Amino acid sequence: MSDTLRISCKVNIYLEIVEVRPDGYHELRSLFLPVAEPHDVLRLTPGGEPGLRLTCSDQTLAGPDNLVARAYEAFALRTGSRSGLDAHLEKSIPSGAGLGGGSADAAAMLTWLNGHAGAAALGRAELSALAASLGADVPFFLLGRPAWATGVGEMLEPVETMLAGMHLVLAVPAERVNTAWAYRAWDAMHLGDATQTGTPRLTSGCPASMRPFCVSGTFIANSFESAVFRDFPGVRRLKQRMTVLGAAASCMSGSGSAVFGLFRDQPQAGLARDALAGEGHSVWLSRL
After folding, report:
1. Where are the alpha helices (DSSP H) in 53-171?
2. What is the pTM assigned to this prediction?
3. Is 274 a residue of the active site?
4. Number of C-alpha atoms within 13 angstroms, CB side, residue 253?
5. Distance between CA atoms of 91 and 7, rounded to whole angstroms?
6. Between vectors from CA 10 to CA 224 and to CA 150, what angle results, nearest 5°?
């Protein structure tokens, strides 16, 4: 008997790069918010020979590097459970958009495997640690509710956002931003020659793009915007369009290229969705 999993994405309502550690990893402070649309669908059918057989609507994502396959292998290695499983992933969450689609898929696989592992099932802390080994965003998707993330994104504190009743318009342009590139670009812009000395020096001032806009007590800002907007002007223009179309606040999600706008009025949000779709962006509207 097959199980069908509906997998949501996320946006970063707030994302601050706090410091760069000696090992090169970036310490973050970010507010993660689950978003209903867009979503992926993962269909799982147990049985057959041991191991995972993964197919995907995007054939380029069906290999062993897919986070669904990596989650299966990590769980099998940790628990010794390698039951037969056919999996088909229908991808709708765009990649390279800062929405965490791959991490969400991995978390869904881990949750399902753990729920079917019987005596081999992992405790919450063990499962979260395993998730973090796959990617900093993966533990958030195990949690499945708004949370402040610190560290490299793996330390989570559930919160209430006070955004209930607002409408979120999420738009993804044709441009895509590679996460590794975004970190390098941020380093080059904000660390300067300090990256050569091994003693990173963060800027003391707040970049213009990080001046927070407060909506219902929640700050809206993203450290990556300064670097991404410089090299991807279409993403900057998309944020400007959100504001022109009536968003109370707008921000890029993650390292880009998705941009969201928060609207207090549903009809206004619907008009913004339609306008942005007409301009060639992929657009979704969700009620928070």
Report:
1. 67-79, 101-115, 124-134, 138-143
2. 0.89
3. no
4. 29
5. 10
6. 60
Q: Domains, the chain, ranges and CATH? A: 3-158 (3.30.230.10), 167-287 (3.30.70.890)
Among 246, 222, 248, 216, CA closest to 235? 222
- The yes-or-no answer on residue 187 being catalytic is no
Rounded-to-integer distance, Cα 15 and Cα 27, Å:
11
DSSP assignment string, 52-84: EEEEESSGGG-STTSHHHHHHHHHHHHH----E
Measured over the CA atoms of residue 140, residue 143, residue 146 and residue 148, the dihedral's sign is negative
pLDDT band at 198 (very low <50, low <70, confident <90, very high): very low
Q: Residue 37 corresponds to which amino acid?
A: E
Q: Tell me the one-letter amino acid at 134.
A: L
Which one from 10, 91, 105, 187 is the annotated catalytic residue? 10
Residue 24 region by backbone torsions, left for phi larger than 0, else alpha for psi between -120 and 50, else beta:
left
Q: How far apart are the first and last CA of the chain?
A: 33
Among the listed residues 40, 105, 137, 187, the single catalytic one is 137
- The pLDDT tens digits for 240-255 are 999 999 999 999 999 9
CB atoms within 10 A of CB 95: 15
